[in-house]
Fold this protein.
Amino acid sequence: MSLSARISALALLLPALLIGQPLRAQVAEQRDSSSFLARELIVPGVLIGSGMGIHWLAHESIDIPVQEAAQRWRARSGPVPYYNYTFKYIPALPLVMDAGLGLVGVPAEHGFLDRCIEATLATGLVSVVDLMLKGVIDAPRPDGTENDSFPSGHCCIAFVGAELVRMEYGWGWGAGAYAVATTVAVLRSYHNRHYLSDLLTGAGMGILSAHVGRWLLEPTKRLFQIPTYDWGSGRPAVQVSFAPSVDPYSGTICAGLAMSF
């Protein structure tokens, strides 16, 4: 085969080789997804630190003005229709997405059982911490009805689900889940149930708990001897990969075929 023919063959094979590299990198990244990474603490740390700082140091200068602005907005626009009926379910929507998207064919990092264990660990942790903080801090709500405002439990649940969706399915679906969680936070302020500091702290706690749930997934499975099942992951039962190449001596186009079950 002439030099020009070999160069043409390599040019035809280059796109396939470039596509194969990200796929292999993605598989390697998934294998390490349950390990602790310090950078995963940055976003929840900033949210929790900001919320606690505002609550303790800037309640009058930040919490109160933001809440007054939200109430002026509500006075102009009116309450959200059917808020009391629909809001019981909206915070749990990201958790439903985390469990259900893989069942309808969206590729997920883990099977259905693993996702359920992960979500149970994360929501259980954040719920316990939320209740403890509410009891210890005893912060009044903006509407004056109760003294369990800090932090926002609805934000804890909504954001733990949103981060689980992002980790399992990527930002394509994660952005939608975070939009739902952010809507929950805005509505809690809009309906005069929480201050900004409550919402920021709840969001940070939810995101952090989602990562803790992932870190504890494999140790929990080993402790209770739970096997790994791929069912419900959204991935095909049989995966086929094709790797083209060119023999450097003869110039012959070759191909490698691999199948995994």
Q: What stands out?
A: Residues 82 and 88 are 11 Å apart (CA to CA). The radius of gyration is 24 Å.
